[in-house]
Structure formats: C-alpha cells, structure tokens
# Entry
Amino acid sequence: MTDALTFLKTRRSRPAKILTAPVPDREALEALLCSAARTPDHGKLEPWRFIVLEQAALRRLGALARELAQTAGPEVVDPDKASQQFENGQLAVVVVASPKPCDRFPQIEQTYSAGAVCLALLNAALASGWGANWLSGWASHNRDFCTEALALAPHETVAGIVHIGTGPVQMPDRPRPDVTALTHWLHE
# Structure
C-alpha cells in the first residue's frame, strides 16, 4: 500500500486547458467509472450518476454556455470563461448529484457521496496515467444549462465535471495547506 500512499501524497491535477488527445477509449473510461463508483455510499443509494461528454457534445455545450452567459451579462459572468472548458475539452465526465428520497440518510450525505465520486474519478484517472482535472464553473450551476444541455431532473445538480485526457507526466507542485494550522486535537 505504500505505492497508493505515495500517489496520494504527490498527486497533482493537470489543468483542463492543457489536456489533449488521446483520451481514454470506452473500455478504459468504464474501468475508471467502476473505480469511482466504489465511493462510500451510505445506504447503497447510488445518489449520483455519470454523463460522458465526448468532443462533439463538449462543443455543443460550449456554444450553449456562451449563449447563456451572454444573456446573463458581463456583470454576472464572462462568456469566454463560461464556455472555455467545453470549447477546449477533449473528454469529460459530468458527475450528477442525484439524491434519493431517504429519511435515514439525509440529502447532504448523499451530496458528499457525489463529491467523493468526483475525487475518486479524478484520482483513478491520474493513477492510470491520464491527465485529469475536476471543474465546475458557472454553467454547471446554471439551471437552464443543466436542464437544456444535460437533461438534469429538477432535484439533480452537477457535483463536478472531470476532464480526462493526455497531459504532462509531471507538474510542478503548488503550495499546499498547512495541516498543522488546520488541525485541532481534542484530548478529552
């Protein structure tokens, strides 16, 4: 397990804007999705699902994000920024938070599970040698975009968009949190 710990201590996302082809084929991507689906899930509710966006779909979503951003106006969002991840992307997986009715396991726990799926997918892609980046962005929180582009149900939201492709093998590290400053130990 030391290899897994070394990976976790040194993992580094690759910026989505620098990811290129080739991308994982269907079989390789399905293996990554299977790894991500092993995420903690109280009650085995599976409160999430995947939407795979291939290049043509990404371009269509980029145009819609740009159009909606222009309608919203520059004081709300920059259309270039809103559409960039879709216009430049090669392959992305939308992790949809899709909570299930359940009194025993509240919606917030189900949302946490969807976020954990994003991280598990990101780490599975990186550990497999792909470049990957977990993004969200203005469009993923815009209800019109989520409904029109992704056909999300009213109770569903985007937990994250994980871009996967070919990226540099090494990335310079960035400053990391001071864990000591962020940790409080209770002794009693």
About this structure: The mean pLDDT is 96. Residues 107-127 form the longest helix (21 residues). The first strand starts at residue 48 and ends at 54. The beta strands are 48-54, 91-97, 131-135, 157-165.
